[in-house]
Each structure stands twice: as C-alpha cells, then as structure tokens.
Amino acid sequence: MTGSRTAAAIAPSGIRAIADLAWRTPGTIQLQLGEPSAPTPPHVVEAMAAALRDGATRYGPTPGLPAFREAAAAKVERVNGVTTSPDDVTVCAGGVEGLGATYRALLDAGDEVLVPDPGWPNLRTLAVVCDAVPVGYPLLGPDGAGVDPDTLERLRTPRTRVLVLNSPSNPTGSGLDAAVLERLLGWAARHGLWVVSDECYDEMWLDAPQPCVAAVAQRMRAAGEPTPEVVSVFSLSKTHAMTGFRLGYVVSPPSLTPLVRRVQETTLSCVSTPTQWAGAAALAGTQDHVEAMRVDYRDRRDRCLAVLAGSAALTLAAPPVGAFYLWLAHADPRPSTEVATGLVLEHGVALAPGDAFGPAGAGHLRVSLATATDPLVEGLTRVVAALG
C-alpha cells in the first residue's frame, strides 16, 4: 500500500531539516527561522485571555468574527492604502493556510503558477498540493534588479493561471517598487492572469516603504489602466510577534471570496475564536511594537553588514530593504545545504540553506535578523570565521 502521489511529490523542507538539526545540537545559535525575538504585545495577550475568561470558546463563522474582519479591513486601508470591505476579508489559520485556500480557490489540476525563485518554498509546494505546476521566475537579475515582464513572458504558457508576488521578499529581503509593480500588473492583466500577493512582511520595511501590490492595482484601475484581479494574503505572525497564534487573513475580490470561504469551511470550519479576538486587538490597538521591531531590525542589519565587511567569501546578494533577512552568496563550492549542516555541527550556528528556496538559491545562505542582537552578531561572526 502506498500513499497519495500528490503528497509524495511534496519536497521536504530544507529549512526545517536544518532547524531540526539545530534543535538537536545543544548550544546552537539559531539564525535559520523567521521568528521575531520580541514578545507578543501585552494587550494582545490580554485580549486573548479576556476572550477565554468570557467564554469565547465556541465555533465561530467560517469567514471570521465580524470584529476581526472589521479590524483587518480598517488596517488594510490605513496601512496598505487598499480600500476593501469586511465582506471580502476571510480569516485564516496563518498566512500559509490562507495562501493554500487561495490556491485551491483558483487552481485546477495542470494549471501553472509563476512563483519567485528564490522564494519561500511553500509558494511552490502549495501548488503541488493542488496538482498544479509551479514555474519559477528569476527574482533577481545580474544587477540585483527585480523581475520584468519580458522574463515572465518567456515562461508563460496557455496553462499559466496565477502570478505570485512577495514584496518584501523572503528570502532575499529585496522589494519591488511601484514602477516595477505597475509593469508586472499590466502584463498580468494583458494575459488574464490572477495575481496572488504574499503580504507576510507588509509592514517590515527597513528603509523607505514600497507600496502594497493591491494598492498599486487600485490606483491603476482608477486611472483606467488594465488591471488584473489581486488576492492579498496577510499574516499577523511577523508584524505582531504572533507566530504561535497561527492567524492571518485573505483580502479577495468579491468574485473569489465565496470560493475561498467554501474551501475554508471544508478544511477548518473556523479559526480559533479566542485567537481572533487577540488578532482584532493586534490590528486595532496600539502599533508601537511594530515600529520598535523595525528599529531593532534596522540596527541588526547594519551591525551584520559591518561584520560581513570583513569577509572575502560572503557577499550580500540582494539589497536588504525589507522583511528581516540577509541573502548571502558564499564562495564554498559545496551545496548550500552541506555548508549549512557543517556550520551547525562544526561551528554551532544555523543558517537557512539557499537551495531550500529554489534552484536560484544554490550557493546562498539566508540569515534571519529576527534573532536577538547579541547572538545574531556572534553567530554571523562565527560564520565569517568559518567561511572566510
């Protein structure tokens, strides 16, 4: 007896493999995962505790509690410049689950999905789960520039259905500016493609913030320009230090929202109700912690760049303007997974191997700035000493 061919086709996570090794190796400095070192804000914790005390432990509506959806719609307009309605906000159990629901609402077997390479691995594997075909597009050109429509056009086929964008990027920390987004959206509109925007790091810009994909699309539409339909998937994990809460939301066009919710109903019925009350507090309450995290990440980035200045074997491969990652090219001829494994076992520091993020990640390592400052600097210092 064998299991599903679809499940067997899902590639194991190279990031998790290094994480598992690091967890089994005492004393390892862990720079491989994107988990904020900051605690969950007290008002968020108290909101969840109050919900539990008040008996908010029953099933909730599949689309999400009205209070959460209203807070999310207000936040998207206030922060992202996107006008939407709570009626088109659907709560999800973390950004990855929201992306999965969106994929299943859009894709049929054999459809092709254009995903960034390098890119977060789940953007590819979620397509595989749908029996769709992920097709990587180069995110970074030789000069570090972002992807362009000519590149996408060479990859497009009659089966291409969705273009996935992620800005700022995991793993590169790079971002797409308004001019680039306008070109990409115009190209997608000409070919009748849906655009799915992974907005996991939407507020984590370390330098000048770049616009939200859906905001650019709305401006183009208002100007009478051809515009594709955009689905935005947000997460509370990074912005509000709520990784363990598993909470996010999908903002979709009215034509797709019922399908997203139909998928949600069949897979999880509803998201935890006390968790949604915590999320409503995070979205509607004080945002001081968000700016504090940005300040910390900016400082950590600059300290790490100073450490890297002394390395001949490690090169910054993308401008770290957002998210909280450094994308490093290494001169070691070994595969990056082998390099990362050696760093754990021989030097006590864990980095994410670049080849976990797609073929374009070969020869690279990802450093997470989400780790506390002192161990981060110490860990990167060890990496420089080990690799030169």
Automatic annotation (TrEMBL):
Residues 29-379 form the Aminotransferase class I/classII large domain. Its cofactor is pyridoxal 5'-phosphate. The chain crosses the membrane at residues 304-328. The keyword Membrane applies. Keywords: Aminotransferase, Membrane, Pyridoxal phosphate, Transferase, Transmembrane, Transmembrane helix. InterPro entries: Aminotransferase_I/II_large, AspAT/PAT-like, NHTrfase_class1_PyrdxlP-BS, PyrdxlP-dep_Trfase, PyrdxlP-dep_Trfase_major. It comes from the Bacteria. Its EC number is 2.6.1.-. GO terms for molecular function: pyridoxal phosphate binding; transaminase activity. GO terms for biological process: amino acid metabolic process. Belongs to the class-I pyridoxal-phosphate-dependent aminotransferase family. This is Aminotransferase. It comes from Microlunatus antarcticus. The lineage of its organism: Bacteria, Bacillati, Actinomycetota, Actinomycetes, Propionibacteriales.
